[in-house]
Amino acid sequence: MAGWVDSRLGLSFPLLRPVPQFALNPFYWLGALAVVAFVIQGVTGMMMMLYYVPSPSQAYSSTQYIFQSVYNGRFLETVHLYTAYAMIMLAFMHMMRGYFVSVQKKPREVMWVVGMLMGFVTLGFGFTGYLLPWTVVSKSATDVGIGMVSALPPPLSSLLTFLIVGSGGDAAELLRFFDLHVVILPAVLLILLVVKMYMLEAHGISEPTGGASAPSKRKSTPIFPDVTMYLLELSLLFGAGMLLISAVFPLGLPPEYSAAAQQSIPQPDWYFLWIYQVLKVSIFEGPTGLAAALSAITLVFLALILLPFLDRGKTRELSRRPVYTTLGLVFVGEVLMLSYWGFTTPGITIPVEQAVFVIGGTALLIAVGSLLVYRLLYSRAKGMLTTAPKESLASTEVRSGLAFSALVAVGALSIGLLVNSLVGLWLGENSLASWLSLLGAGALLTLDVLGSVYLIYRLDLRTGTIRRRIRSLEVGWKN
Amino acid sequence: MKSGITLLTVQVVFLVALQLVSLVVLWAVNPLSQGATDTFALYLSIDLLAFVILSYIYRSGRWGRVSNQFWVALGLLSLTVLLVSNLVLG
pLDDT tens digit string along A446-477? Predict the structure, then answer.
């Protein structure tokens, strides 16, 4: 029976290559999980589409109907939203993991560019989907976004305005956003996904940064059923997490948009908060300032897209890419810090001096910290690294990866908070909250530094260098 | 062409099918009111988590390894906590 099914359906046809053992690690599957999130959104979105009406007069009431009257409607809405958030988060983590382990290097340059385009489409999903419930929050924030688009240079602004707003007016705008969200963007994402999957099959999965891994780790595992089961486990664990979050933090529907309610402070969703915070700096007020800010942000995005053509070095190891690793850490730190800052200061214009100190201070502290680590540890261990066992640098191990990500996130946030509190105190905000914030940030940063030292000691770069040095120092001291 | 499907493959397919059926049943017989969708989501997450543990134990055996008892214990503890909290909340 099984043979008959296989011969008719061609299940054992080698469409997808076997996966090496080293890739059976959640960090290799962040992109796949983002696709799983996309599928969940597709399913929940199609169910909601049965009831949703994309017109200004009925968008809110139909959303409310889904919430209140459709069987499990609120569940669908909540899962759809949180999975969208997870998709954006996973796409960002996938990108940064790729950045730190240099997956963009030869021969995967085009794969990186396609992946970046997929990231932008994912952000496009967030931007277009945010407007659809037609709430006061979503409409105000989207209008700000559309206003930003019109500040771009003439050919780009008119093209983008036509694409996202249409002939003008609320009805055309909502319809365009709906069409983009449910037809155009999914189609573009699927095409890009097919292209990326094709290239993945052509080039194979990128090896760990330490170079060729141990023979046991290179052993191939068939896609079906082994890798399929592994991915299914990850996907279901992810699904269970999403359901738990949906149950613990159920979604509420904000008030409906109306012209009178337009006075509320517009604030974008969390994934655009870092851009929002940059635009709130006083120097970027007015058309010229806005154009300058948008140009700077566009340059950051362009640098990310063209990264494989900028970072031309052949080495992929973190230990030999101090500049690009530091730049990556600064980028993650700034995004986290600006997002948090934007969340806590809605609608407040940031004085340029404060922005310079906080943004510059955060970048400086992260850069100095990162380069110090290189100076003190990596450069001394360099000789050992070249002769280290091939399975060196535990970057592919789950716990090390998780610890590294957590330390980067906590470190960036604490540095941002610390600098922000110091600047606040310097500018005269001499309140108990400011001192408590300073104290908390200092404590958090101390914990982060201690955690980093512990992690580096535990990792030991897999060479034994640090541990041996410490041991020899201890012996010398005793003698 | 030699068939790539073995008894183990059939077992995997059976497990997946069983889980899909249980999901559909859970969805179809949901007796909860509109306000109790959170409880429904919790039950569904319990269902998924249970399958993950089952699959992990099975996969470890298939790969000739002993499943990591820490992860299994953590999964079972999570299931218990979810179930108890669900019953208390319900």
Answer: 888 888 777 776 665 555 555 555 555 545 54
Amino acid at B62: R
The domain ranges of chain A are: 16-206+221-252+260-316, 318-479
What CA–CA distance (Å, rounded) separates A162 from B9?
52
Structure tokens at B5: 């499907």
State the nearest Cα–Cα gap between B89 and chain A, in angstroms: 11
Cβ of A228 and B12 within 8 Å? Answer: yes
* CATH homologous superfamily for the domain A16-206+221-252+260-316: Cytochrome Bc1 Complex; Chain C (1.20.810.10)
CB A119 within 8 A of CB A95: yes
Highest mean pLDDT among A59-68, A147-156, A411-420, B61-70: A59-68
Per-residue CA distances from A463 to A213, A370, A472 (Å): 15, 20, 15
Structural domain boundaries in chain B:
7-26+34-89
Query: Six-digit token pair at A30?
Result: 């962040």
pLDDT recorded at residue B73: 80
Whether residue A217 is predicted with pLDDT greater than 70 in this model: the reply is no
- Choose among A96, A129, A124, A150: nearest CA to A294: A150
Residues A350/A334/A78/A67 CA torsion (nearest 10 deg): 20
Q: List pLDDT tens digits, range A393-420.
A: 444 456 667 777 788 778 877 887 787 7
Q: Is A7:A13 a contact under the CB 8 Å cutoff?
A: no
Q: Test A240 with B52 for CB contact under 8 angstroms.
A: yes
Task: Out of B42, B48, B63, name the one closest to residue A236 (CB).
Answer: B48
